histidine kinase
Amino acid sequence: VAAGLVGFLGMGLDRVRLLPLPEKLSAKALRSHVRGHGSREARERWWRWTLFLWVVGWTLICLQIFHYFDSGAVEKRRESLASMCDERARMLQDQFNVSMNHLQALAILVNTFHHSLNPSAITQATFARYAERTAFERPLTSGVAYAVRVTHAERDQFERQQGWSIKKMYSSPNSQGPGDAAVAEIRGPADEYAPVIFAQDAYKNVISFDMLSGADDRENIIRARESGKGVLTAPFQLLNGRLGVILTYSVYKSEPPADARLQERVQAAIGYLGGIFDIEALVDKLLHQLAGKQSIMVNVYDTTNDKPISMYGSDDTGSGMFHNSTLNFGDPSRRHEMHCRFMQKPPLPWLAITYSLGAYVIALLIGHIFYATVHRIAKVEDDLQIMKKLKKCAEAADVAKSQVSNLSYTTYTACLTQKKISFHALFCLFAVPGYSFT
């Protein structure tokens, strides 16, 4: 440094034209510096908000993706349940219709070989044997019986021919079945009777019972002969402890025309054929046939009244997805439904989880890439500003060095005294690496 200062001696001030280096920053430069600093902060704030909105937006989009695929899985499961429930309802209904058709054929047989022939070609033993040997054609019935129509004027002659008296049926709500005819009470006088004369061996105890003495059976018989179609009773407990219903067909002297009046149908009725349907056994058999498929919980209800009557299934209906299938058993006055539910809980929607999480991870990666890129650009801009400042400082040092090298010590001292060489230039001269007095 001393050697450099010695070189200044003997130099005149008038030989050097000093550049005007400002002692402090001008107002314009200050505004430019503040504006650049402010724009950088605004730019960083804008990128932060953009990244935040990107993450929030893709979060909502991924939730929508999850909801879309999850809804599709739920709808597919619902369609599967509906398909299985409808299939079981259709099979149950088809088997019921097959049994109904065979009962109608049996009613025609009784009309042909009992009422149309004198003497009758059918006895109790013949009827019971025929019913047993054709039971495979009635997979839903556990027994059949036939009751003949008897007026009060015909009662004495009828009882002498049969060798027994017409008995009263016990149909209280707490009784299981009509009881035993051997100890039953004799039926009191009435306008007409419907005593059972033929029955399958499993139900021989109902022979001689007047079906019109039971409230449910009486309603069934009246509706059957008025409509000319098969009618069903409300569910009741059978002798085996299961729930079942009775299907009743009316037998006429001759088939009445379709437009026959109600009174004509009532007058033409000569008997009533009833079939006992074991609904619980039927549904159990049906579910056993479909055991290879996905198991579902099945309940069958009689929904004729406001309060449904359970015909099959547990009282615990559970919760969750269910499907109702309508059952048509041929009686328009009674309504039946099959309710189905899955026994297992639904599996996790892995497809929805995979797609939504995958999209979310990709979105976060893209956001991280943008953030890293913006951060890198900002760092490069900062480095560029530093380099610009260093460049200006180096240029100022070069100018100062060229000026100072031509000054004498006395002249240099005078320049400093007169502030024609700024301390900023002097600092750059000594502070910038690579510059020294020679």
About this structure: The first strand starts at residue 141 and ends at 148. The two ends are 8 Å apart (CA to CA).
